[in-house]
Amino acid sequence: MEPHLSFRGRRALVTGAGKGIGRAVAVALSGAGARVTALSRTAADLESLTRECPGIETLCLDLADWEAVEAAVGAAGPFELLVNNAAVAELQSFLEVTRSALQRSLDVNFGAVLHVSQIVARQMIAQGLPGAIVNVSSQASKRALRDHAVYCSTKSALDMLSKVMAMELGPHKIRVNTVNPTVVMTDMGRINWSDPQKSAAMINRIPLGKFAEVDDVVNSILFLLSDKSAMTTGSSLMIDGGFLVS
User: Fold this and answer.
1) Is the pLDDT of residue 117 over 60?
2) pLDDT at residue 191, rounded to an integer
3) What values do phi and psi take at 164, rounded to 5?
4) Where in the sequence is the domain holding 64, given as residue range(s)?
5) Is the pLDDT of residue 201 over 90?
6) What is the CB-side half-sphere exposure of residue 167 using CA atoms within 13 A?
7) Number of Cα atoms under 13 Å in the Cβ half of residue 85
8) Residue 181: cis peptide before it, omega within 30 degrees of 0
9) Three-state DSSP class for 39?
10) 26: Cβ–Cβ under 8 A, 6 or more apart, which residues?
11) Does a structural domain hold residue 198?
């Protein structure tokens, strides 16, 4: 994070904030002066986050439970900044996709983003607050990947949802953008991609020759939330080391 980015006095909600990118975004926003609410369905992750960063408030929710989300997020707001980071990756070949995997992916990767954004944006509008929303998408929204039929499809849907949100919320001074990372070296990413044989095929298609680090994504999210990107909305910021140009 660039030290001159400040979110002092602004309220932010980060979903999927228990681990990985979401957790790092929550900590970075808090460090830059924002009042942060971190949302996760895993209580233990939220407890360790508040020990690490005591100023962060928490919400323990399953985003697929619309009624609980409506009540809890509505009561916690209003927010001026929103990062929709929560996602699931149900990896199955096309012929093996199950209804449960499809439904869970649609609920979290698409439906929850729509729903949480509705709640937050309605409050922004009611309060007359300008705001910024960043949806965490993926390079998989732009390129087919084996065994990612559902994941690629939900991330593509997320990109288009973000564009429609940008169009409709722009008149209310609410900006909406996505970040689209390649493989990111979270703790889970390092485990899943530590095998050189598995990672080589992907890295060989990335001109920069490496995967993304968590800070690469966090810095891009903070830029899109900040006034430094005041004229940017409806855009997808690729954090892929050039994967899509190859």
Assistant:
1) yes
2) 75
3) -65, -40
4) 11-186+214-239
5) no
6) 6
7) 27
8) no
9) strand
10) 12, 14, 17, 36, 38, 49, 53, 56
11) no
